[in-house]
Amino acid sequence: METGDGRPTPTEAAEALAAIEQTQATLHRTPSPKWYPPSLAAMVGGLMLAQLLPGIAAPLAAIALAAGTGALIGRRIDRTGIRPRITEDRRKVTWLITGVWAALLITVGVLAHFAGLWWLWLVAAPVAAIGALLAGRRLW
């Protein structure tokens, strides 16, 4: 029952807050669809392998794969109806993984271009894809 001024009683407010917390906890535990981590891993591995394409095809493929990754994330949000809730710990781990992936991409790119070690892309692609798959299953 409301108090005379239109505000909820302390009991009603406590019940409403408890319902909100329960809903948030449920959303936090909602798993990603099973197709999401493998798809993300394929995009990450594909981005690395795209660097082996000749000429303008490499940057065009990289742009297409980056756009595909954005579309993949958008599809996940559309399909589940929720945005992933990222805790501070998950955010830190996600940035760490992103930093490691970027360092791998840059290191392999420099070595492939300046030292002629193009085959490193063949090693880096599955490493990055497996890392994305494992991280995706654990984090998202």
TrEMBL record:
Residues passing through the membrane, by range: 40-73, 93-112, 118-136
Q: List keywords of the entry alphabetically.
A: Membrane, Transmembrane, Transmembrane helix
Please give the superkingdom of this protein's source: Bacteria
Q: What is this protein called?
A: Uncharacterized protein
Q: Which organism is it from?
A: Solihabitans fulvus
- Taxonomy of the source species: Bacteria, Bacillati, Actinomycetota, Actinomycetes, Pseudonocardiales
